[in-house]
Specification:
The structure is a homodimer of 372-residue chains. With 372 residues, chain A is an alpha/beta fold. Chain A folds into two domains: 269 residues, Alpha-Beta Barrel (TIM Barrel); 94 residues, no CATH class. Chain A is built from 15 helices and 16 strands. In chain A, β11, α8 and β12 form a beta-alpha-beta unit. The first copy, chain A, is globular.
């Protein structure tokens, strides 16, 4: 495997700030990866995503394999060229969306069969096919092993079976991935909220050995405390010298608490999805721009921000755009939210470097707990 | 009135290229005004609109008076500040949308009563109220007189009544507008497709005297030939030294033919509306990006364009975005189309300046007639 160098530049408690070196550019960590589901970060131009501070974005294997298909993207030069993003891309394995979006899925040892949520057509994902799609056809810089995702809550026996199967799929993913110069492969820890299963899953994944380690199966309804507890248990079991990635998380408060527990990478649709629905994330907590109290509020979301969406438009104007159902409302708030999530990462890296992360974290958590 | 200076810089046949000088900046003519219906040019950032070459945009009085209301925009500093556009804005009188969108309208000599298409609430527009909204509350650089718009086809007696009433409303609009240093008022010629009514309406409007003269009541279904004939009759009746504005038009071929007949300004929702529906306007005619023939077409819409939307994205990618229902599809094609309409104006100005407009026009008309 590529073993992209990962330099830890500073630590503060369990939190660390660092740099993942990849052939397509460095990734400053903690890193938030905007989600480009269908080869686009919804309602944003990629130069806005880049300028907001994103070093890496995420693509969804499930969506892309169904439309426009991985083969088509490959014939068009790969995902980077297709969507016009020259920096690193991480793709998920497709597993999570198969379990959350598709119909009539059947999990077998070989892989998972499912029907497309778009047109009902039949498809299959095996560990080998997922790697082929991610690494060979889409050309992801970081691929993820296929894993079995369980619902929350989940009976322990089912969660345990999923841990075993995910471990076997991890080994097959690694074998299929083989040796690559310029691409990396991450393994995934499962185990629901059962401490012994998380321990077992971590051990299996580390034993297999990957370029980075993800924690999956969180942010599925277990709640903030259970998430924090699971992370606190899991991250110390993962290799210190490799990046740790918390999948699908989350709210700013979740990100800050996860960084405090040693997580380096995140992805979530929250900034763009909530942006499309009128919600802005700010240093003072979330606000809904559709709210009547903003109809004549002439202040911008954040006058101190470098992001034009945060700085150059009044809340009154944003309120109007959402009431009128205008594209620009979704465009501006998605942009603002991505810029906020990236600014949160920048601040986290800075405060870790200055040894004041814990103070910064506590201040934010206090502020956000009272505002939420 | 302001009498914004209008310098005619070159002529080629009846076509002219020029410059309208306004306190908020010069407008190169022939000019295409992107339509910012609800205080936003749909799916575009205004810096994209500006960079595409627009010197002036249009705002819709009807939409803005209903939501967020003209009074609210006024309290928020006027339309330029509200939407973040420092350059000239022309507003329509609201009349056209009252006649095309609202319910239960009642035309009286004083003005028109109608119900909002949004919530059924009752409103009224008189010539005086329209001027108050446009010039005082929104702060338009160019306001339009209130006129009575008729359907197409229209019985001659009704069209004649509308001409008379529009002329009286024009006088009242002018009186209400009064003397202003930094704002201009345009009158409107009506008369459906009846030559004698167009002549009469032109005479009345010129007699009243405005800063510029619009031709209304076209592009309402009369067809390209009737539109050209009406223009050919009307523009020579309007003062040579003042800008002529063809309202709500139109397709590129209509613009080129209207320029050939001495029109200086245009507005139309076509580039943004068709952009949202997958249609791109190009030098080779319109194409629909949803078409299956583009699924693996790796070429951009126009590699020679300065506009990133035209140059940096493949048709295959645009096809994918429209099939996936992604915001970015509408964003990119609206941008491309506005850039194309503005490039068309730039080329018209250039060819008029070089005395080869007629050749250019004929070439385009031939090309577009066979492609349409």
């Amino acid at each position: 495997m590529a073993e992209f160098p990962f330099h830890i530049l500073a630590r503060d408690g369990a939190a660390r700030s660092g740099q993942i070196v990849t052939p397509r550019g460095d990734i400053a960590t903690p890193a938030f990866m905007p989600v480009g589901t269908a080869a686009t970060v919804k309602a944003l131009y990629l130069d806005q995503v880049r300028a907001a501070g994103a070093d890496i974005i995420l693509g969804n294997t499930y969506h892309l394999m169904l439309r426009p298909t991985a083969e088509r993207i490959h014939r068009l030069g790969g995902l980077h060229r297709f969507m016009g993003w020259a920096h690193p891309i991480l793709t998920d394995s497709g597993g999570y969306q198969v379990f959350s979006l598709s119909d009539l899925r059947k999990v077998k040892e070989d892989g998972v069969e499912f029907r497309s949520h778009l047109d009902g057509s039949k498809h299959a994902l095996t560990p080998e096919r997922s790697i082929e799609i991610q690494a060979d056809l889409l050309g992801a810089d970081i691929s993820m092993q296929l894993d079995e995702c369980v619902a929350n809550p989940c009976e322990k026996s089912l969660a345990s079976e999923a841990v075993q199967r995910s471990a076997r799929w991890g080994e097959r993913s690694k074998a299929a991935f083989g040796a690559r110069e310029a691409q990396a492969l991450f393994g995934i820890v499962q185990g629901s909220t059962y401490p012994d299963l998380r321990r077992e899953s971590s051990a299996r994944v580390v034993e297999t050995g990957f370029d980075g380690y993800a924690v999956g199966g969180l942010a599925v309804g277990e709640g903030h405390t259970a998430m924090c507890d699971t992370l606190e248990l899991t991250t110390p079991l993962l290799p210190e010298g490799r990046p740790r990635y918390l999948m699908g998380v989350g709210k700013p408060i979740d990100l800050v608490e996860a960084i405090a527990r040693g997580v380096d990478m995140f992805d979530c649709v929250l900034p763009t999805r909530s942006g499309r629905h009128g919600q802005a994330w700010t240093w003072d907590g979330p606000i809904n721009l559709k709210n009547a109290k903003f109809v004549e509020d002439d202040s911008p979301l954040d006058p101190a921000s470098d992001c034009p969406a945060s700085r150059d438009y009044s809340k009154a104007y944003l309120n109007h755009l959402f009431r009128a159902g205008e594209y620009l409302g979704a465009m501006l708030l998605s942009w603002h939210n991505i810029a906020f999530f990236e600014a949160l990462m920048t601040e986290a890296r800075k405060t870790i470097g200055q040894g004041r992360f814990e103070l910064w974290r506590r201040d934010l958590v206090t502020r956000w707990s009272s505002s939420d």
